[in-house]
Here is the input.
Amino acid sequence: MSNVPAELRYTKSHEWVRVLPDGSLQIGITDHAQAALGDLVFVEVPEAGRQLSAGDACAVVESVKAASDVYAPVGGEVIAGNELLATQPELINQDPYGQGWILRLQADVDPDSAGLLDAAAYGELSAAGH
Amino acid sequence: MLAPEPVIFELSRPGRTTPAQQPPAAAAALPEQFRRRQPAALPEVSELQVVRHYTRLSQLNYSIDTRFYPLGSCTMKYNPKVCNALALLPGFLARHPLAPAATGQGLLACLFELQELLAAVTGMAGVSLTPMAGAQGEFAGVAMIRAYHRARGDHARNEILVPDAAHGTNPATATMCGMKVRELASRPDGDLDLDALDAALSPATAGIMLTNPSTLGVFERNIVEVARRVHAAGGLLYYDGANLNAILGRVRPGDMGFDVIHVNLHKTFSTPHGGGGPGAGAVGVGERLLPFLPVPIVGRDGGCYRWLDERDLPQSIGRLSAFMGNTGILLRAWVYLRILGAAGLRRVAEYSTLNANYLLARLTEAGFEPACSGRRASHEFIVTLRRQARELGVTAMDFAKRLLDYGYHAPTTYFPLLVPECLLIEPTETETREELDGFVEALAAIQREAATDPELVRGAPHSLPVRRLDDVRAARQLDLAWRPAAR
Here is the structure.
């Protein structure tokens, strides 16, 4: 059973969203997603300043099985990408909700009204094998 | 068990040489400043060592000429040797590409007829043979879609729709052509989700790229309705010919409503496949795209054949190669089509489909789970090993690696991406029932091993010169060049 922290919000496409104390958002992919992808070998993160709309492909995660896009859960401006991932893509496998974060975003909408899933709803979705 | 073969540099000993490595007399005429000062870092080996090295490597090779090769969506079928033999006739081999058309009417007649045959098989109005690979054919196809919209002043159309089950080359092609890719969801039964299609269609839609039968190994039953809706929205339909083998002579992409198609001659029409080429990705188009075909094309004026170029097709997307694509490869496809004829092509589709459904039925009996249950397979099908992965901790990759020990090339693994722990299996029409039975028995045996001795399967292969590779480390620490150790 994959780990779904209760305090985070989620998307159907397996991103997680954490609201940081300064109101910005930290974003990554879920434990379920990293397990399905397998060992990551390459991660491309967005550069600071990039404007994203909700649903835009904003990062790429590549494992030995597949390369997948990561989608922006909400629109906004990228504050930072996690530079550590360039040399240590395995951080996403080891610590998907911590050191394996992918980007920070200054959202241009309230994340509470962005249609994100709570942990219970995402847990059901991922357990159903989606 | 086959022994591993060292890199030829590891056989090298200082001073050992062969006559072929001695500088030819002509080298003495080279001006001093152009001569190499240090000896080239070549392996120093005897002629016999070279012969043995490469002969042993060739014995390690696995090919359709040695064993079963069920690589789904790649159509690794047997190519009759006669296709090769005839393409090697000296009249073809010795012809210079710049020789005048008047001295090569035989070759041009073959290519013209190949264009006509491919147009007839696919239901298209015209064909260009110049693309030198499937990927180049795809590029040509989407470039023609772009050229069509631009010629109409329809500059806002910059989106290509691609289903989630598509070959990875499809989104790559669209991106190469400057298009934005919009992904479409498939339904669990493998058909395209028509509601998702409606939601994606817009005045920005340039076209849609589809493979039918799809990469899920099933026929897209809504194709006529998909074509109607895409056309109504002003878009064009692109047919990826990867799975054409399943429908040859039975149903034509042109009749389904497609406007452009690329045909992998190396998958469907008996030309060499794999190893990076030489390939051939002929493109066919409906009436609307005829002016945009890449050149050269072979035309016929009266009884004479000639090259059609930019003067004949001023709106052409241009040239994709210096000459006429890989002409020798095209000849093999022409021979294949002439040998089979219309009845033979229908048999190709029937037997490739029959073989796939036979394998699917037997593997289902043996306890493997079909990905699209209730759907009949086309020429290929998917089984998912998610149950085995969950209950036994033995993955699709473990099964694939263990198959190598049983003497089989593994099927395609982990593709398409939307089916977990999958094997995509394509037997093709050229296998016997005994061969298919042997493959089922091997997979059934591995299934028993996975239950009783999972470590054996997880550690496979055990009998090959190279054991399980650390593919994660290989991808993370790219090391693509072998360097001789410092001497």
User: Anything to note?
Assistant: The longest strand of chain A covers residues 57-63. Chain A touches chain B through eleven residues (CB under 8 Å).
